[in-house]
Structures are given as C-alpha cells and as structure tokens.
Design brief:
Number of helices: 6
Strand content: 5-15%
Largest sheet: 8 strands, mixed
Order of helices and strands: HEEEEHEHEEEHHH
Distance between the termini: 188 Å
Helix content: 40-55%
Length: 268
C-alpha cells in the first residue's frame, strides 16, 4: 500500500492531494496513509484485502470513501475523524451484527450508505436500526433512494394508496350526488301527486268535469255554416214530403167515397 500511495502522490505533498485511488493494492491493514492528508476528499480502497480499519487516519475534509469488497468485520469507530463524510460504501464485507455498525452513528452528515452483501443486512429490524440513526440525513441506503425516511418504492405505494382512497372518496361523493338526484326525482313525483290530491280535497275541478269541459269545447269547435245549395236541397226534400203526404190524403178520401157509394148501392 505504501508504494502505491507514493506512486499516486507524483511528487506532491500529502496535504495537496485531494483524491487517492488505491484499488487492488494488496494489504490487510492501513499502511502509509496518515493524518498528513488533510486535504483528501475522495478515497477508494476497493478489493484491497483489508480485515479492519485499524489505523485509519483523521481526514477532516474526506467526503467519499469506498472500502467495498474487503473483509472488514469491525473497527468502524476509526472513521469518526471523518466528520464531513457524506458517502460511505462498505458493501461486500464481513459486518455481522448491529454492534459492528453502531459506530457509524458518529457520521452525522452521512447521506449515502451501502452495506449490501453484509450479513448484518439480514438481521431483523436492520433498516429500522439504520434509519433511526440517520433519519435526518440519509438519502440512499443500499442503493435504494429514501424519501422522508422510507424507501422510495414504499413512498410511491403510500401515494398510490392515498390516490386510490381519494378516488374512492370521489366516487362515493358522486354516488351521493346520484342518490340526491334520485331523491329530487322522487320529491318531484311526490309533489305532482300531492297537487292532484289537493285539487280534490279543496273542492276544485274534478277529473270528470275537466274531461266534460274538454268534450264540450270540442263539440263547440265542430259547429259549421250550412251552404245555400244544401238549404235549397233540404227545402226541396221537405216540399216533396208535403206533396207526398197530400197525395196520400187525397187517395184516402177517394177510397172512403168509393166505399160509401158502394154501401149505398147495396142498400138499394
């Protein structure tokens, strides 16, 4: 590790270095990295073979630290000197229980934490434990974004549930409106029926009288003026009838006279 650090320095002083990438340099412990690196902001120690973080220096400006793919199982308290640390990747290590990660609570500005592929993540109440420690700052845990201390997917589900409830409430209100409309229609029907009953009870115009008035009005509307030709025809018919009656009377008289004369002759 020391040789690798010297190569990365490239003749610069330790306090001038802001980034160090020491991936795959084989070492089981921190060697060659000291408190002199006060300007260091980003440090990567991926797949180095570290078994602990003993001897980890105080790096007051360090923001990003990646120590994934190692065999670290304890000594996380050595990170307490990195007071500005915002992103920490401890994925694929040997952290087994809550006691091993308890020291991380000193990192008050931590926003991104990755503990994936550690046995501790399988412990019951793991996420609750982490969120309790970093509820105010943490935005991403094990690759999952967090919203108000919850997984983004869980938050989306809560929003969908809220929307569904709102839709159901809206549908309920619409149903109530429909019921109100039905009630209004029923009220209208009741109103018409009450009107009719009121007419009968108050001695007003009855149904039969109303129908009779309608018939009379229709009869009056059927009156018509007789034409002159029709009048003349009617007069002619009446004259013919009178003449026929006169002829009948004359014939009757003649018959009576004839019968009288016959009786006379028989007497003689």
């Amino acid at each position: 590790m020391e040789k690798r650090i010297e190569l990365e320095k490239r003749g610069r002083k330790p306090q001038e270095i802001e980034q160090l990438i020491l991936d795959d340099c084989r070492s089981t412990a921190i060697v060659g990295l000291t408190d002199e690196y006060t300007g260091l902001r980003s440090l990567s120690l991926i797949n180095v073979g570290l078994t602990s973080l003993k001897g980890f220096p105080k790096l007051p400006l360090l923001l990003y630290l990646d120590v994934s793919e190692n065999r670290i199982s304890n000594s996380l308290q050595n990170l307490s000197g990195c007071i500005k640390l915002k992103s920490l990747n401890l994925g694929q290590n040997k952290l087994k229980d809550f006691d091993a990660i308890e020291p991380l609570k000193s990192l008050e500005r931590l926003k991104i934490l990755d503990l994936s592929n550690n046995e501790v993540t399988k412990q019951q109440g793991y996420k609750e434990f982490i969120l309790e420690k970093f509820a105010k700052t943490l935005k991403c845990l094990d690759g999952d974004n967090l919203v108000n201390g919850k997984n983004e997917s869980d938050s989306d589900s809560d929003e969908e549930d809220s929307e569904s409830e709102a839709e159901e409430e809206g549908e309920g209100e619409e149903d109530d409106d429909d019921d109100d409309d039905d009630d209004d229609d029923e009220d209208d029907d009741d109103y018409d029926s009450d009107d009719i009953d009121h007419v009968y009870e108050s001695g007003g115009v009855g149904l039969e009288e109303m129908l009779k008035d309608n018939i009379d009005e229709e009869s009056e509307g059927n009156d018509y003026v007789v034409d002159d030709d029709d009048a003349e025809q009617d007069s002619t018919d009446e004259s013919d009838d009178d003449a026929g009656e006169a002829d009948d009377n004359s014939t009757a008289n003649e018959s009576q006279d004839t019968r009288g004369k016959k009786r006379k002759l028989d007497d003689e």
